[in-house]
């Protein structure tokens, strides 16, 4: 049994914690897809199926990105500045979406 303390901040129960768990699981699946792409390249597979897998991975990352922003909008307890107004937080998320999408 490890006596090392976790550096992770405990997540509050509820919708936000569930959304974060689902996001982490989605990213782990993307990670697995990318490892599969690496194996395909290393084994010399044809470019078309590799491109298909890369496209699927990219779409999965895009979906994770949008889900992350949706979580930030829905759950203000996970924003950096919890004292900002709801309108300001939503405007900040909209700017992030416009800048990063």
Q: Radius of gyration, rounded?
A: 18 Å
Order of helices and strands: HHH
CATH architecture: Up-down Bundle
Total individual domains: 1
What is the CATH fold-level name? Methane Monooxygenase Hydroxylase, Chain G, domain 1
Question: Which structural class best describes the helix and strand composition?
Answer: mainly alpha
First CA to last CA: what distance? 43 Å
Question: Topology, please?
Answer:
Elements: H1 15-42, H2 47-74, H3 86-100
Helix pairs in contact: 1-2, 2-3
Short account of what is shown:
With 101 residues, the chain is mainly alpha-helical. Helices cover 70% and strands 0% of the residues.
Question: Mind explaining what this structure looks like?
Answer:
This protein has 101 residues and is mostly helical. It has a single domain, classed as Methane Monooxygenase Hydroxylase, Chain G, domain 1 (Up-down Bundle), CATH 1.20.58. Helices cover 70% and strands 0% of the residues. The chain is built from 3 helices and no strands. Helix 1 packs antiparallel against helix 2 and helix 2 runs antiparallel to helix 3. The longest helix is centred in the first third of the chain and has 28 residues. It starts with 14 loop residues before the first helix and ends with a helix. The relative contact order is 0.12. The N terminus is likely disordered.
Q: Which terms summarize this structure?
A:
101 residues, mainly alpha, Methane Monooxygenase Hydroxylase, Chain G, domain 1, 0% strand, disordered N terminus
